[in-house]
Fold:
Amino acid sequence: MSELAERFETHDPGEKQVAEKIRCDACPVMCYISDGRTGACDRYGNVGGRIVRMDPLTILDHATEAGGAVVPFVAEGEEWDGELVNTGRRFVTAIGAGTTYPDYKPAPFIVSQEVEGVDLVTVVTEGIFSYCGVKVKIDTDRHIGPETATVRSAGEAIGHVTTGEYGSQMLSLGGVHHLTGGSKAEGRATCDALLNLCNRKPVELTIDGGAVIIVEAGKPPVIDGKLEHRMRVGCGSATIGMFATQWRGLVDEVVVVDDHITGVVSEHQAGKVLGWQDTGIKIIGRRSTPGRYFKVSEPGLGWGGTSISDPLSILGEWNAKKGARPGLSLLMVSTTGEQFAYYELDDALKPVQKPFPERLQKSVGLIEENCEPALCTVLFVGGAGGSLRAGVTENPVNLTRSVQGLTTYVTVGGAPVYVWPGGGITLMVDVTRVPEGAFGYVPTPALVAPIEFTLRRDDYVRLGGYEAEIRSVDDILAKGGEYLNPRRGTAAPASNLWPPLAQLRRAAGNGVG
Ligand code: SF4
Structure:
């Protein structure tokens, strides 16, 4: 049983309140918490008879490089000296802000800031996402399992393999059916895995009929115990196109072995344009167009994402009438350049492996050099189309329209998001652009994620916002909020634009966001 599950088991929301316990109402679990203890999620505690958000409210400083702490913790009751965060480019994130649950009250922080003469407001809250999920991109040629195969964590189904994309394998994990629609164990395992993936921790995933993969955002995948180093340079056909000139005059034939499209230079358009001679080669596979072959093998962990370990197994008989001759030279290489071999035809027109010639080393090295490092990418997918909107405006649909109309700029922990077109506010964010440790959970089960909405103050008032609750950044730094937690300054990730500025530029129509 996971740590998360154990905590859930020990909590009984139906227990009677006793004198020294107080109730946390920041999520539907409604923990009763003794003095000096924290609730089921560890995010809230009873400190001297008051409910306190245990993590500090995070304020980003957009003037410094990522990585260094900028401002020490400012405990509740202490003065914020303002010294270190003094650039004017501060951003109050929702990390540590607290929630609006049960959604009848305004967001914990509604922050005003003037940027280039324009009054902007950022509405800051931690959202509880019961239906959220992640999309995982794993840069690898290797076959990790068939499409639609179930992905498991701790033995429970938490998602599935989805359509592969251009040299990467894709997983779709979480969502309403696994978080809340299955057994309790399934929901807990899903929540556990999503939380760790979003907080950039390694998670072991097992695919039915496929591989065991360790996924960690921003790191290379480990597939069946093997660390992946690089992603393919392109399919076999693209590799031929890119490097045909490098091979001209050095070898008579090149086959780039690839599970998707295997390329043959003498038949390929690139080879034809360069005047490559026919070689009488025969590829066992489904010919698509000249020099491009599908399904030379089954997908697997071998050469170019195929199941083969001997590349000659995809070759048929050589045809002397079409150019095959003793001594003809052949390079076979995979799409990452990791596997390569050199052959010459003998008198019986059979390929015989020979020591790899120095003259071809450079071209194989060039394939490797052009491959990007293999990484795992984790995108958090959440929806802010539900009750969370009521903490922003008294008329929730106005927020949806405002986001869709690009009047409101949405961030997650200060990181830019992609908002899907269509109904609701369905957003995706790269978790590596969100400050570390920004995601939490509640044992309902659901993930907790920071979310901020930035828009012009007059637009905010117009859409029914809580004008009376608007406060300045300085006031928030000095006094904190309802949940009495300290404030912490930290350097914003260098890749993230200061959200108020991003909103202004987007409103001005120059495409940011
Ligand atoms: S699980 Fe956490 S947020 Fe929910 S009531 Fe308990 S302490 Fe509060």
